[in-house]
Design goal:
The complex is a heterodimer of chains A (476) and B (566). By secondary structure, chain A is an alpha+beta fold. Chain A has a domain of 198 residues. Helices cover 13% and strands 30% of the residues of chain A. In chain A, strand 6 and strand 7 form a beta hairpin. The radius of gyration of chain A is 21 Å and the shape is globular. The N terminus of chain B is likely disordered. Chains A and B meet through helix 4 of A and helix 5, strand 5, strand 15 and helix 18 of B.
Chain lengths: 476, 566
């Protein structure tokens, strides 16, 4: 069984919502239940959306370009597993001094838990390590690395978790938590998909792509932020679901993406043995829509959109600098194959937009939607295991003799998810966690200084732990 | 001690000249600086700019405040001089690819990132005891922190000296040098920022406990006397005030020698919803007891009225800027900048600010909005101040606000680009500004220092030597004692904002009111929010604390950061 009932409802609801807010790509291949494995019958599952129509401001030109050539091929583009072009090294080198990690250092960003620490890896020393009372001891897969328990949420969350660049705020679904005050902040009107700008200037929630300034969280002791309606400090935008936010470096224009082809991922509420299914086919005509956010002088304005070809790809994530796009890709049969790193060549002459995505690396590892490090050298992701065609390989990677190993049986029944780090420069992969059966380490993402945050869901419990890992420093 | 602002608070509110109720004021207000910067000066940019250049205030202006209130001509001359001081070229701290490169003084001023870095360093250096006590910073500590901030880039491993030198050398044009400060939206002079960071305990107290109310009571000060000649036609009316009266104090108003049938009312409150506390014949007058905020309204029911209105009142002794450690110093100055992109196929709109253009927008039935413009232009770098960012994006300066604290309610100056720069609001541009060079002679200017216009000459004294300016001033003149005027086509873009004056909006900074509220609530913020309704301004008119750059959140975030480490 690959889809739990609760999961199915979530997918259907979100898919429909995407069309409500005008974020779904009208030229995308229609949902094909046979292909997606998702029962899309949303008429009775549609959530109430309280976003007024005026909250959703369409971009000036949201129609995907019609002049974008589409590859007629019906097979995935040729690429070599492990092929890493020289552009990757050039980009990583540039970002080491010009990326958001460096920029945030130059802005003296106060990283959470770093008061008095001389190096990033010395941060959060006051935060207790995980143990038997929470997710269990020995959950770190890396000797010498630490897993620290930031807090325990008393309720389950839905879909993903993201954190502010300074690591102070954690958006665990609709539950936003201020680690500095040890206090929750209710996001009134939010339904899912928290995201934070890499310069720590603001955050967004869905529906309506609500953009809120960070000062709404950092001034005083707020207990709630009203995302919508009169009196809300937040503004509507055209940012669609599963949005990923880059921010321009040195005032340049930048590009924003949101989900077109995606795999809604809300696993771990029930046994989840493989990566979650796609919302639609990721076929030869798959495209990713880029919106040009131009620096008008008084703010960033959506000037227009262009779609770039990303055949057989989905779950696009834009890098913090908005200069790279990483996607997951599938084979002709729709089986997940790994990640493709694309260089975004997007430019404009006046309002005329030119854009393309060029593959510069391919990493054939299994994992869900990733998160970039702020220096753009690494990604971190989670990977479900326990079943499917990769079960045997997963079992071996976890230290078992294979999927038939009796000690692995509990994993095949209850599933598991672990967190990984992939070095984009070398292709090296390292597993961060060593979760037990029925334990799901999910939605890992970096904060600006290199710490990784993720959550842990455990079958049979209603709580979720938010964990910080310094494993990233072990790879540097 | 009573602030000079309270002492001088004899301001007049205008009024409709008919016996019926005054028409409801239209919505809107001018609120500058309420948006954040887009790309501030970076650490390397600050290294190149060096310490921000102090604003060389005219220390004689405070003594001339009353002259500026009563003379548009004197006011404009003072404002142009302040413009020249703000735009004066300042050399960069390090050599660039342009020999002898300079930037206008305001581009050296501090932005939010500078404030954050400086405050973080100061606060950390207080140590646990000082932080717990929310100690003030010493002058030596402030000097050290600002100096450290200027050289902060040199402490970063990714900015070795060779890279900094290469960065400076890469700036090979006037436009790229102008881009060093970034697409700065709001910037503040060194004295402004020094006062702000020194006021952090007061700011935090306001965040925790709330800002002072509209009327702050206090021990009664000595009685004040305000006198104003009043001339009313049949059915004419004038409203004067507000007058703020302390607990235990009184207000007595009387129009000596008023004709029979002339009525005097004291209104309890300063908003459009104010009720009547006392009604009497103007000759007999009214006396009401404090505490409260009052307006005095005189109406000629009979043949008209003429006389000297005396208002004796006892104001409270109260802090004017309750969320700061006192008001800003005289050398405080801020700018809010309106940059427009040059390379996105977006021509610059132009606006007709002649008498005819203004009259059209302010005509009965018009919505008093600037709209999308009366034409377009594509001024080059010689005609409009232009900058280019390292990424290649190019911007021109369409408009800017300048506020300087040489008088109580600040010199509220605004400049806007014009294709006819020597007409109307550019007709009196002095040689000191012309001498700054090409682009700076393309900007027109208006200024307000008070809520109300106290120059009795509608033409502001320019009839003979600057007739187009005189005509334009007449077009916006609403009467002696009526709300003053100063509006920027590029910045005051909201509905009704052709009627604005900067002063009225800024009194609400850090009060808890949001700029949008001020612009859209004609009851609590009457006459397009141009009138005084508070006897205090919590942040002395600086919106950057709780809007725009949200400097208050910088303080709060830093304090919380250290609290969470305990």
């Amino acid at each position: 069984m690959r889809t739990a009932p609760a999961h199915r409802i979530g997918i259907a609801s979100v898919t429909l919502l995407a069309s409500f807010v005008g974020c779904s790509d009208p030229t995308s291949t229609p949902v094909t239940p046979a292909d997606s494995g998702v029962d899309v019958t949303p008429t009775t599952d549609t959530p109430k959306v309280d976003a007024p129509a005026t909250d959703t401001t369409p971009t000036a030109d949201t129609t995907p370009a019609t002049d974008t050539p589409v590859t007629p091929a019906d097979v995935p583009p040729v690429g070599e597993c492990g092929g890493i072009g020289p552009e990757v090294a050039a980009h990583v080198t540039a970002m080491s001094t010009m990326g958001w990690a460096a920029l945030n250092r130059s802005r003296s960003m106060m990283m959470h838990g770093c008061a008095g620490a001389s190096r990033p890896q010395d941060c959060l020393a006051m935060v207790p390590e995980v143990g038997a009372a929470d997710i269990g001891a020995n959950r770190s897969a890396i000797t010498g690395a630490h897993l620290r328990l930031l807090y325990t949420g008393a309720t389950r969350s839905g879909f993903w978790t993201r954190s502010s660049a300074d690591g102070r705020f954690v958006g665990r679904g609709i539950h936003l938590y201020d680690l500095a005050r040890s206090a929750g902040v209710t996001m009134t009107g939010a339904m899912y998909d928290p995201a934070f700008f890499p310069d720590n200037s603001g955050y967004t929630y869905q529906p309506g792509g609500r953009l809120c300034p960070m000062s709404t969280l950092t001034t005083g002791e707020p207990t709630a932020v009203q995302l919508m309606g009169a009196g809300s400090p937040c503004a509507g935008s055209s940012l669609g679901l599963y949005q990923h936010l880059g921010t321009s470096l040195d005032g340049a224009d930048y590009w924003a993406t949101s989900a077109g082809n995606a795999a809604w991922d809300d696993g771990g509420h029930s046994a989840t043995l493989t990566e979650t299914r796609r919302n639609e086919a990721w076929g030869a005509t798959a495209q990713t829509s880029l919106t040009l956010m131009a620096n008008s002088g008084s703010g960033f304005t959506a000037v227009g959109s262009r779609s770039v070809r990303t055949p057989f790809q989905g779950d696009a994530v834009i890098s913090p600098s908005s200069r790279m796009l990483i996607t997951r890709f599938v084979d002709a049969a729709g089986a997940y194959q790994g990640y493709i790193l694309n260089r975004l060549d997007a430019s404009h002459t006046g309002p005329a937009i030119m854009a393309s995505a060029t593959e510069i690396a391919r990493y054939c590892v299994q994992g869900a939607k990733p998160g970039f490090s702020y220096d753009e050298r690494y990604i971190t992701y989670h990977h479900y295991a326990g079943g499917g065609p990769d079960a045997d390989a997963d079992a071996r990677e976890l230290g078992f003799t294979g999927e038939d190993d009796p000690a692995f049986a509990e994993y095949t029944r209850r599933g598991v998810s672990n967190v990984y780090i992939l070095d984009l420069l070398t292709g090296a992969v390292r597993r961060v966690t060593n979760m037990g059966p029925g334990q799901y380490a999910l939605y890992p993402h970096y904060r600006s200084d290199g710490w990784i945050y993720f959550i842990v869901r455990t079958l049979g419990t209603g709580r979720e732990q938010v964990i910080a890992s310094d494993a990233g420093f072990m790879m540097r | 001690m009573i602030s000079s602002r309270v002492r001088s608070a004899f301001v007049l509110t205008a009024l409709a000249s008919a016996c019926g109720e005054a028409p409801p004021p239209s919505d809107g207000a001018s609120c500058e600086g309420i948006e954040s910067q887009v790309e501030p000066a970076s650490a390397e940019g600050r290294w190149l700019l060096g310490l921000a250049s102090r604003y060389p205030a005219d220390t004689n202006l405070p003594a001339r405040a009353d002259e500026l209130r009563r003379s548009q001509r004197a006011r404009r001359a003072a404002a142009w001089a302040a413009v020249a001081r703000t735009l004066a070229p300042v050399p960069l701290a390090h050599p660039t690819g342009v020999s002898g490169a300079t930037v206008p003084r305001f581009q050296t001023w501090y932005n939010r990132d500078d404030i954050a870095r400086t405050f973080q360093r100061l606060y950390e250096a207080l140590g646990p005891t000082g932080r717990a006590a929310r100690a003030r910073f010493t002058d030596a500590a402030l000097d050290e922190a600002f100096g450290w901030n200027a050289g902060f880039a040199t402490t970063l491993p990714e900015w070795p000296a060779s890279r900094l030198d290469a960065y400076a050398a890469s700036l090979d044009s006037a436009a790229s040098v102008a881009g060093v400060a970034g697409v700065l939206r709001v910037a503040a002079s060194p004295d402004t920022v020094r006062h702000l960071v020194q006021s952090y305990p007061d700011v935090l107290r306001c965040i925790a406990s709330g800002a002072p109310p509209t009327f702050v009571d206090g021990p009664a000060a000595s009685q004040q006397l305000a006198r104003e000649p009043v001339t009313l036609a049949h059915c004419g009316a004038r409203t004067l005030g507000p007058f703020f009266v302390a607990t235990g104090g009184t207000l007595t108003a009387r129009l000596a020698d008023a004709a029979e049938g002339t009525e005097l009312r004291v209104l309890d409150g300063v908003t459009a919803a104010a009720g009547t506390r006392c009604t009497a014949s103007a000759a007999a007058g009214c006396t009401v007891a404090g505490p409260g905020s009052f307006l005095v309204k005189v109406t000629a029911r009979g043949q008209g009225a003429r006389g000297m209105l005396d208002v004796r009142y006892t104001p409270p002794t109260a802090a004017v800027a309750g969320c700061l450690q006192g008001v800003f110093p005289v050398a405080a100055a801020t700018v809010a900048l309106e940059w427009r992109r040059t390379d996105l196929g977006m021509p610059l709109p132009t606006y007709d600010t002649s008498a005819a253009g203004l009259s059209r927008r302010l005509a009965p039935g018009a919505d008093a909005s600037w709209g999308t413009g009366d034409g377009t232009a594509e001024p080059d770098g010689r005609a409009a101040y232009t900058m280019r960012l390292p990424a290649g994006s190019s911007f021109r300066l369409a408009a800017m606000h300048i506020r300087t604290r040489e008088v109580d309610n600040w010199l509220n100056i605004t400049l806007w680009w014009s294709p006819t720069p020597d007409d109307d609001f550019g007709a009196d541009r002095p040689a000191a500004v012309r001498a700054l060079g090409g682009p700076w002679s393309s900007y027109k200017m208006c200024v307000a220092t008070e809520y109300t216009e106290l120059d009795p000459d509608p033409a502001g004294g320019f009839t003979r030597d600057a007739p187009t300016l005189a005509a334009a001033l007449r077009a916006v003149y609403e009467g002696h004692g009526a709300p003053s005027w100063c509006s920027n086509p590029y910045i005051d873009a909201g509905p009704g904002l052709v009627r604005s004056n900067c002063v009225g909006c800024h009194q609400h900074a850090m009060s808890g009111a949001r700029p949008l509220d001020v612009q859209s609530d004609p009851i609590n913020y009457p006459s397009n929010a141009r009138l005084q309704v508070r006897n205090n301004s919590p942040s002395d008119g600086f919106w950057g604390l709780d809007a725009g750059d949200h400097v208050a959140s910088v303080f709060a975030e830093t304090v919380q950061y250290w609290l969470s480490a305990q």
